[in-house]
Design brief:
about 60% helix; globular; about 190 residues
């Protein structure tokens, strides 16, 4: 099977919004500072301590969907898949070099297997489209992480609003590309 090429399903709005995000003054400096301070291992340790890692032995009905999705999307290494005990239906992906996927117990309770498959394919779409670092960075910034640049600085005040708006917009547009990845995996047109 020839895996799908993310460039073929990357949505134009996603491309434009990311290009615009990167045009914001000092965006490159914010990225390099974030990468310098971001410790992916801490997220992994937190996942292992507070979530259930799914596998062929642990909730195999859900985990076994993931390798085939990764193959269809050309993701070489199957990402860790975690179950978060949370009644709210949700799924998310974060990380950088070793992204992971989390689904909540509420999501598994309210969706059919076919719908869970589509959600996992959507999350893998973010990995295949290389959204994960920027999504992680966006979540940190949107949750008050601009302090990384120094609280109260003139630079922070000048770019904070436009950076937040640009991240919100790009993150929303990136969902279009991830949805397209899910459609490819589900075989729908």
């Amino acid at each position: 099977m020839i895996p799908a090429n993310p460039q073929d399903y990357l949505h134009d709005a996603d491309r434009r919004a990311l290009r615009d995000l990167k045009r914001i003054p000092i965006f490159d400096k914010i990225c390099s500072k974030f990468i310098q301070l971001f410790d992916e291992k801490i997220f992994g340790i937190t996942d292992m301590a507070s979530k259930i890692r799914l596998s062929e032995e642990q909730v195999p009905r859900v985990y076994n969907m993931l390798p085939g999705i990764c193959e269809k999307l050309g993701i070489k290494e199957v990402p860790p898949l975690y179950l978060e005990l949370n009644r709210d239906p949700n799924a998310y992906t974060y990380g950088d070099k070793k992204p992971s996927i989390t689904v909540t117990s509420g999501l598994l309770e309210c969706l059919t297997d076919e719908e869970i498959y589509a959600v996992l394919a959507h999350e893998c779409g973010h990995i295949a489209c290389q959204h994960v670092l920027y999504h992680t960075m966006g979540q940190v910034i949107l949750n008050g992480g601009l302090e990384l640049l120094g609280s109260g600085s003139l630079i922070t005040a000048a770019v904070a609003s436009s950076l937040k708006l640009a991240f919100y917009y790009w993150m929303r547009c990136s969902e279009f590309s991830a949805d397209r990845a899910a459609v490819i995996c589900c075989g729908k047109s």
